[in-house]
Amino acid sequence: MSKRPSGRVTLVDIAKEANCSVSLVSIVMRGAPGASEQTRARVKAVADRLGYRPDQRARSLRRARSGLIGVTFNVLQPFHADLVEGLYEAVTATDYELVLGAVVAQTDDIAAAEPLLRDRCEALIMLGPTAPPARLAALAAEVPVVMVARPSRIQGIDVVRVDDRGGLRLVVEHLTSLGHERIVLVDGGKAPGVEERIAGYREAMTAAGLEEHIRVIGGGLDEEDGRRAAVEILELDERPTAIAAFNDRCASGVVNHLLTRGVYVPRDMSVVGFDDSRQATRCIVPLTTVAQDTVLMARTALERAIGRATNRYLPTEQVLVPRLVVRNSTSAQHR
């Protein structure tokens, strides 16, 4: 058993002792929904043992405006960097400021959000969060949450995303217009939006009469995931003539490996990405890709966050229309 903290006991002390997040402790102490009865009993027992007493002055401060909007983002994702840039551009027209929480290997979305809560952010914008729905719901019970680039039906959470199904339909329609039939999809592993993009791919292939050529290869979010997928693709008995990748980083990994094996893009295989991030133009072969309008997405997310923070909006889902950007990585099938 840990010894009792010296000085005033805080929610952080309780969270450490109860082995849970600060946001979950806050939910329990406020009696808000989002925690099981077993968790409530455990947290309250720890609070009683440590001698916790609510700080009424802190509660009064939390009720006051801070003028801060928190943003969690993955430092390894170029698409997130584009969104953060768009948020900073949009926030200049408001009287709010942004506070960033980085998601890295050692810090997940919820952990990245906790310092933002301690800074009294009035709302959170979470870019492509991968946390389980229950943990996101618990967070949303404490502060208004706007999720960007992740489909979700979690009650009480705003969603701003692109039409992922429609994006993959654009990809397949573009490739079939160039004469491709054997089109493989490299998915995003466990990333948000995977199911929607797979569904869009399957629907478009079926609509084109290409059901027999439907094939989904396991992939992921980065170049190494793309490389591994390309290795598997090159070992197929019947190679595809075109590859749709989950995002631009994955597509770049595919392109790089194909070139090292003497498979030229787009002469031998066409490759398409998704996001139209800065990675798309930096790839050794500039990528044809599906553009998500990061400026509009960021502006919409910020508007929703401020509206939720000031009790002007109820949670909704905003679905934006994707756009295909054609560059050098696709061409007509060479027979």
UniProtKB/TrEMBL annotation:
HTH lacI-type domain location: 9-63
UniProtKB keywords: DNA-binding, Transcription, Transcription regulation
Keyword presence, Coiled coil: no
Pfam families: LacI, Peripla_BP_3
InterPro entries: HTH_LacI (IPR000843), LacI/GalR-like_sensor (IPR046335), Lambda_DNA-bd_dom_sf (IPR010982), Peripla_BP_I (IPR028082)
GO molecular function: DNA-binding transcription factor activity; transcription cis-regulatory region binding
Protein name per Swiss-Prot or TrEMBL: Transcriptional regulator, LacI family
